[in-house]
């Protein structure tokens, strides 16, 4: 397990794609179990989540007090997260998206809808292009997507125009980045739910989306801390 920081209050780790953020009823591996295996049978609280196919930086609380502090920071929007993704198409300038998303519990999917739909919630993000080209050419610039890019190449998408982008989100909605990017015409590479090109990719962990950086205030020291994937 990749541990970026650890003390008596918090632990910052890199969650691999395909590992659940929290304990589940299935036999699927999860981060809380892995952390307890590493640290012993200690208190571990999941204060935020990443979708199963999404990897990246996460912070877990190691005490009830730390959990309360971090949860409050998430509620207040003082914890900053940035993502990186590989999306289809050639994104040439910053894209600021503000939509209304509706979450369908039955299908476990979200969609962009008109503002007057009951239950729809505001979703806002910014996508910034970093590199445009083929996934095959992004291996050096985005080594954290090595396995995903390998899956795209083996599936015949290695030479199709894509854009490596940084995403900053201002709201935390279900599947927000995946849904808004697809609706804007830049669906994420390897996304089996919202990109029809990858409907046969289930189980291949090819989704090119990760939580690249995380910034929060330490619940005890008050120090502002920042971590990112190398």
Which key features would you list for this structure?
230 residues, alpha+beta, Pseudouridine synthase, 4 helices, 11 strands, 34% strand
Label the CATH architecture of the largest domain.
2-Layer Sandwich
Low-confidence stretches are: none
What is the 3D shape?
Answer: globular
Fill in the CATH topology of the largest domain: Pseudouridine synthase
Q: What structural class should be given to the helix and strand makeup?
A: alpha+beta
Helical segment tally?
A: 4
CATH class of the largest domain: Alpha Beta
Q: What's the CATH H-level superfamily name of the largest domain?
A: Pseudouridine synthase
| Count of extended strands | 11
Mean pLDDT: 92
Helix content: 10-25%
Give the helices and strands as they follow along the chain.
Answer: EEHEEHEEEEHEHEE
Strand content: 25-35%
